[in-house]
Design a protein that fits this description.
- The protein has helices at about 5-35, 45-55, 75-85, 90-115, 120-130, 135-140, 145-160, 170-185, 190-210, 215-240, 255, 275-285, 290-310, 315-335, 340-370, 375-385, 400-405, 420-435, 440-445, 455-465, and strands spanning about 390-395, 410, 450-455, 480-485, 490-495.
- The chain is mainly α.
- The chain folds into two domains: about 5-145 and about 245-365, no CATH class; about 375-495, Rossmann fold (3-Layer(aba) Sandwich), CATH 3.40.50.12610.
- Strands 2-1-3-5-4 form a five-stranded mixed β-sheet, with helices on both faces.
- Helix 17 (about 400-405) links the parallel strand 1 and strand 2 (about 410).
- Helix 7 (about 145-160) packs antiparallel against helix 8 (about 170-185) and helix 9 packs antiparallel against helix 10 (about 215-240).
- The N and C termini lie far apart (about 90 Å).
- The relative contact order is 0.10.
């Protein structure tokens, strides 16, 4: 029997898609390593590593991140702790992110197949999806959303997957739907937002099935829906998950949110400009069949509205819906009648190059951002010279890095809004960075038990206009400070106690 060439072609496309996804996820890490920087991408990574580490070393005394406030350990942190026991936390977090990214992409691809979308259209949807800065950030920076997204996709896939109704295969459909319910139960253990999202998706599935199925089949489907809703509520009430949104830009103004949502304008978590153009075209094209897309429109509007409360972290969940319409936009450009074929090909080439430009630009930005190798080396020296109860003064952006690498407390970190005495800590931080006189500086250092100061290049650029301003004026005073580490990017000073 001859091989089916079409089947083989499909397999080749899938293998190419997996290879491209793998390269996209590995590229930022390899670029960072080539620059001689072995630290993790993003400062937020170290917050989640600390939470996972607290599961591995439960006998340890209070961890820096847990001392002043309580952080909820999500299923992701437990999974990361398990991976960390095998590979080590830092290596394990990279491997885990890679696996979650590949599995999520594959599930999304299969989910599109369930919607009877052709192979060509699926590939056109996956192209802007895989090249999206949001996708890259989600699975290259250790964060709980990566596992929550996988659980949602797995639940959606299993809920829509059906087998032939024979005695030997009917149980597979039942097992799949029950597993989907368990996935939503686990998702609800992440936060209130996730519990609400799980309930909305379960109800959406029930309404959709109600329109497509007969009454008896519809009632059986709603048994799973009600079970999923009940377990989602139960999970939230039992585990009482607190928000773990520790390092995301939260804005409440549309004017300020727009530049923070477009990666080409420097946003560390946003969509590319060409992706947004494709999204607009896709939404316009879908409006011709608006009744079929009504539920998706409502979900997109709801998620976008939540951005004003939760910040651009919502983009992790908006991405999957947006990618579908981006693909529709790309398909519309491809299928549109063009009088000149050359113009059509050039337009598609410009769009694809635009997507690639946003991706490469974001990769470069991400690879060069965050902690540096010399900061890691300096913090290792700091750890050796300090006591466990010493406090380090640095910017809140560097807080998690110092807490994890030096194992020392900081005055402020990326989750500063969870500190009970936030106003007092903010005021102290401001007065330490801009002390009115030496006496005030000395008093504040003693009051807050600050023994070390970590300053990097970005802090100097953001906080001070010159070397003769604020705290920088006093650092050269040998009676007050002793420099224990210096490099092109980082300086570490030890407070001299008279």
């Amino acid at each position: 029997m001859k091989e089916n060439p079409r089947y083989d072609r499909k397999k080749v496309f899938v293998y190419v898609f997996i290879a491209v996804t793998l390269m996209v996820l590995l590229a930022p890490v390899f670029i960072r390593w080539m620059l001689g920087n072995e630290t993790l991408l993003g400062e937020e990574s170290y917050a989640h590593l600390m939470l996972a580490e607290s599961r591995i070393q439960e006998e340890r005394t209070i961890h820096p991140i847990d001392e002043r406030r309580e952080f909820f350990v999500t299923p992701y942190h437990r999974l990361l702790a398990f991976t960390g026991r095998i590979f080590g936390l830092e290596t394990g977090s990279l491997i885990l992110g890679l696996l979650l990214g590949l599995l999520s992409s594959l599930l999304f691809f299969l989910l599109l197949k369930h919607l009877d979308i052709s192979l060509t259209e699926r590939l056109l949807i996956m192209l802007p999806f895989v090249l999206s800065p949001v996708f890259i950030y989600l699975f290259t920076t250790p964060n709980p959303h990566s596992f929550a997204v996988l659980l949602l996709l797995l639940g959606a896939y299993l809920a829509t997957k059906t087998y032939a109704h024979t005695g030997s295969e009917e149980w597979l459909t039942l097992a799949g739907k029950l597993t989907a319910v368990i996935c939503l139960f686990l998702v609800s253990m992440f936060s209130l937002f996730h519990a609400g999202l799980a309930i909305v998706l379960a109800l959406w599935y029930g309404i959709k099935k109600g329109r497509e199925s007969k009454k008896r089949a519809w009632m059986s489907e709603w048994v799973y829906v009600l079970l999923a809703v009940a377990l989602s509520i139960l999970a939230f009430l039992i585990f009482k998950p607190t928000g773990y949104y520790v390092y995301y830009q939260i804005e409440h103004s549309l004017a300020t949110l727009i530049p923070l949502s477009i990666s080409d304008l420097g946003a560390y978590l946003g969509f590319g400009a060409f992706s947004l153009v494709l999204l607009g075209i896709g939404l316009y094209e879908s409006w011709k069949n608006k009744k079929q897309h009504l539920m998706m429109y409502l979900l997109i509007i709801t998620l976008f509205t939540l951005v004003f409360w939760y910040g651009n972290t919502i983009f992790f969940y908006l991405l999957w819906l947006a990618a579908y319409y981006m693909g529709l936009g790309l398909t519309a450009l491809r299928n549109l009648y063009w009088r000149f074929t050359l113009l059509k090909n050039l337009t598609l080439l410009v769009v694809i190059c635009g997507l690639l430009f946003s991706t490469i630009s974001f990769m470069n930005q991400t690879a060069q951002g965050g902690a540096t190798q010399d900061m890691k080396e300096g913090l290792e020296i700091l750890q050796g010279l300090s006591r466990t109860d010493d406090v380090v003064l640095t910017s809140h952006i560097n807080g998690f890095v110092v807490e994890y690498l030096a194992k020392r407390k900081v005055l402020l970190d990326g989750a500063f809004y969870t500190i009970p005495n936030l106003e007092e800590a903010f005021e102290a931080s401001y007065r330490l960075f801009y002390p009115p006189d030496q006496q005030t500086l000395t008093r504040l250092l003693e009051q807050h038990h600050i023994q070390f100061i970590v300053i990097d290049k970005k802090m100097k650029e953001d906080l001070w206009n010159s070397k003769k301003q604020g705290l920088l004026v006093y650092l050269d005073n040998e009676k007050l400070f002793k420099r224990i580490f210096t490099s092109s990017n980082t300086e570490i000073w030890q407070v001299q106690r008279g």
